[in-house]
Write a structure and sequence with these properties.
Layout (H helix, E strand, L loop, with lengths): L4 H4 L5 H5 L23 E4 L7 E4 L11
Antiparallel strand pairs: 1-2
């Protein structure tokens, strides 16, 4: 799924979340949030000027373009 950097900051990182212990999963932990542009797995997608989309490289390339 292609998302903006603001949308990414509202999603969980699958890598960080997979390291959580079962008892921690009950609450929201800000350490699990996607880092977007600051993450080595973040992949940028070419977009029209003024718009920037990307996706998590851990999930593979999205099959449907958002633009």
């Amino acid at each position: 799924m292609l998302v903006t950097k603001d949308e990414a900051s509202k999603k969980y990182c699958p890598f960080k979340f997979s390291k959580a212990k079962n008892k921690e999963v009950r609450g929201i932990n800000m350490e699990w949030i996607c880092e977007g542009l600051n993450c080595m797995m973040w992949r940028r997608k070419a977009a029209p000027p003024g718009r920037e989309y990307g996706y998590c490289g851990l999930g593979g390339m999205p099959s449907v373009d958002r633009m």
